[in-house]
Specification:
single chain; mainly alpha; flat
């Protein structure tokens, strides 16, 4: 092979142990617990294309899911985020069930989709919650539990009387000042919003309503839910930004993910984890954004006295 003709050649394993790869894939799929009888693969589309089945085992689970740095729990939250960003509801439902098998709680998964909301939009988040609800109900049936009986709540009757059922879950007297204070505290931890940071392009000067939503909704509320740590939140945002090809946002969140304690290797693995679910081309763009972020940080470091 003339390696000067293909630059990728020196960065691959030319003699991979494919049998070990397939064995690793089978172990990962067993841990996820959704691919046996009655599970996702029962739909049987893999019977139509043996090459596709081989790629699922070797590429998706043997190579991508088999990377060494992130845990299976972390990988699953990346996959859920990428799937929800594309409104792939059927896949979201199955991967919620996998997430439960890998140790995520229902309450944590609700926070995962809540965290996604500012980055994928409300309608896609609604679809993700609907898929999660179906997964929870199926998990209950699998465990022999009957459907949960509706709880009687005086707020429900009041909301019905007012003509909007969602009002039963709405705080009618929120403390906006507290939200804004929490938002600034989170943004300071993230470390990309000060002088020389993301907002230096000045977009914030043209829409006060958008600014208010960013501060109160995104950072004051969503980033302040109690269960997820900063590393997990950054993995979620990185996956959603990669899936949606929001390269500018991704580049900055690579930097904030480093501030949250993720390593460069873990960030690269998170982006690569999206690959089977969004395609190679979008993943290429995500990795390019990460490389730009790393390069900018290295350049800054080299300029310091």
């Amino acid at each position: 092979m003339d390696e000067t003709k293909d630059r990728i050649a020196v960065h691959i394993d030319h003699a991979p142990d494919v049998e070990a790869r397939i064995k690793r894939a089978a172990e990962i799929r067993k841990a996820m617990g959704i691919y046996g009888r009655g599970g996702q693969s029962g739909r049987g589309q893999w019977r139509l294309a043996p090459v596709h089945a081989q790629a699922i085992f070797e590429y998706c689970f043997g190579i991508v899911w088999g990377q060494p740095l992130l845990t299976l729990k972390q990988r699953e939250v990346v996959v859920l985020s990428a799937l929800a960003a594309q409104a792939l509801d059927d896949e979201v439902e199955w991967h919620v069930r996998s997430a439960l098998n890998l140790g995520w709680t229902r309450e944590e998964l609700i926070e995962v989709f809540t965290q996604l909301s500012p980055y994928i939009g409300l309608p896609k988040t609604n679809h993700a919650f609907q898929a999660a609800r179906r997964a929870f109900e199926q998990a209950d049936r699998d465990n022999g539990a009957g459907p949960e009986r509706p709880r009687e709540d005086p707020k429900d009757a009041q909301a019905e009387a007012a003509g909007d059922r969602m009002l039963s879950q709405v705080d009618m007297h929120p403390d906006a000042k507290a939200r804004i204070q929490k938002a600034f505290e989170v943004r300071q931890k993230i470390g990309i919003y000060g002088t020389g940071g993301q907002a230096d392009d000045g977009f914030y000067t043209i829409s006060r309503a958008h600014n208010q939503a960013i501060l109160e909704y995104c950072f004051g509320m969503v980033w302040n839910t109690p269960l997820l740590d900063m590393k997990t939140r950054e993995l979620i945002v990185i996956a959603a930004s990669t899936a949606n090809q929001c390269e500018n946002e991704l580049e900055w969140h690579v930097r904030s993910a480093l501030n949250a304690g993720l390593t460069r290797g873990e960030i690269v693995e998170a982006i690569a984890q999206c690959s089977p679910y969004i395609g190679l081309s979008k993943t290429n763009q995500g990795l390019r954004a990460a490389k730009r972020a790393f390069g900018a940080l290295d350049a800054q470091a080299s300029r310091k006295p």
